[in-house]
Amino acid sequence: MKRLKVLYFVDTLAAGGIQTLMQQTIAQFDPAEIEVTILTLDQTTDRDMADKFGPDVAIHRLPNPMKTPLDLLRLSQQARRYFKQSADYDVLHAHASSKCVGVLRAAKRAGIPVRIIHAHNTAFFTDSQIKQWLGTAMKPALQRVVTTRFACSNQAGRWLFGTHDFTVIPNAIHLDRLEYAAATRKRVRQAEGLADKTVLGHFGSFSPAKNHHQLLQIFARYHQKHDDAILMLVGSGDLMPQIRTEIQNLGLSDAVRLMGYRTDVADLLQATDVLLLPSLHEGLPVVLLEAQAAGVPCVVSTAVDSVAKISDHYQVVALDADMAVWINRIEQASRMPAASRHQGRWQVQRAGYDVTQAAPDLLARYRELLAH
């Protein structure tokens, strides 16, 4: 059987849901069956970032800072030059962003037979009206340069593809490391100084879509009633300085932990009592799957795609709901007995999100698409 050559395109290699999805999926592939290369705009040469994909994965970088709309034109030129030197890929699997059009168009010109765009979002992740306008204008162009459309959920697919056909591909994850373990929970909570605390967790980039402002307002009200509570913010991003200032202004410096970028998310989920995700918009967040697999009760906004609900311990609250509703849901979630957490891993597996099952299916799908 022919060894496939697959190129993945992603804006950045920084920690996030898409990067976790890629990493865990690629790790399941047999290098004898597939040769994987990653193309990115990320200029970071941090070995930890590159090493997480393994020694068999080559990482190529397009030197583009993407600071102005004009850089999109430069990106198209750079992509054309790249494919003149490397055009022997069977599949280009691009994780959707405004930068994809130029890369996919260059791949089409280079004759790459299977060109996949993979939708993950349900809205633009920017407040810039100009960038939103550009993104909307590029949607029709995107449809003309792809052969196949994937989406993490129906909502994400409809947002990016409109009436065009697409296939939902589950955001599968590695479940074994997420299964609830009381010993791990105890160890991590002691190491992080959380042994006797109620820990509310948020895992995600410091970006507008994650709605950290409302998250802090919710926690401030909850902390007034439960002064033993800690809010653990895991992630990094451009808004972190602004959020740090807001934490100080709310007088919550001792109650909010800014954890930064972490590679031990599975362990931190074990230490978490309730996951909070009051996002303004989301497709299918990988961290929600991970949290439910770890048996963590979740309280999320109605803006999160409903397909994310797997566990019975998953509650949804409208963003404009009274603050008392949020507090009540968090209190309910925090009272969930620890014994119930053991069910999470199996519920997520039964729902089809086990990467050990999904990765071979994806490889077979690549071969099927190439055969046609």
Q: What's this, in brief?
A:
With 372 residues, the chain is α/β, with parallel strands linked by helices.
What does this protein structure show overall?
Helices cover 41% and strands 17% of the residues. With 372 residues, the protein is of the alpha/beta class. The chain folds into two domains: 4-172 and 354-371, Rossmann fold (3-Layer(aba) Sandwich); 176-350, Rossmann fold (3-Layer(aba) Sandwich). β11, α11 (286-293) and β12 (298-301) form a beta-alpha-beta unit. The chain starts with a strand and ends with a helix.
Could you outline the blueprint of secondary structure elements for this entry?
Blueprint: E1 4-10, H1 17-28, E2 34-40, H2 47-51, E3 58-61, H3 70-85, E4 91-95, H4 100-109, E5 114-119, H5 129-144, E6 148-151, H6 154-161, E7 167-168, H7 182-191, E8 198-203, H8 212-225, E9 229-234, H9 240-249, E10 256-260, H10 265-271, E11 274-277, H11 286-293, E12 298-301, E13 314-317, H12 323-334, H13 344-350, H14 355-371
Parallel strand pairs: 1-2, 1-4, 2-3, 4-5, 5-6, 6-7, 8-9, 8-11, 9-10, 11-12, 12-13
| Shape category | globular
Which strand order spans the largest sheet, edge to edge or round the barrel? 3-2-1-4-5-6-7
* Level-2 CATH architecture of the largest domain: 3-Layer(aba) Sandwich
Stretches with pLDDT under 50, minimum 5 residues: none
Class inferred from helices and paired strands? alpha/beta
Series of H and E elements: EHEHEHEHEHEHEHEHEHEHEHEEHHH
- N/C terminus separation: 16 Å
SS strand fraction: 15-25%
How many structural domains does the protein architecture include?
2
- Superfamily at the CATH H level of the largest domain? Glycogen Phosphorylase B
The number of helical segments is 14
Nearest-angstrom radius of gyration? Answer: 21 Å
Q: Helix content range of the residues, please?
A: 40-55%
**Could you give a short account of the major beta sheet?**
7 strands, parallel
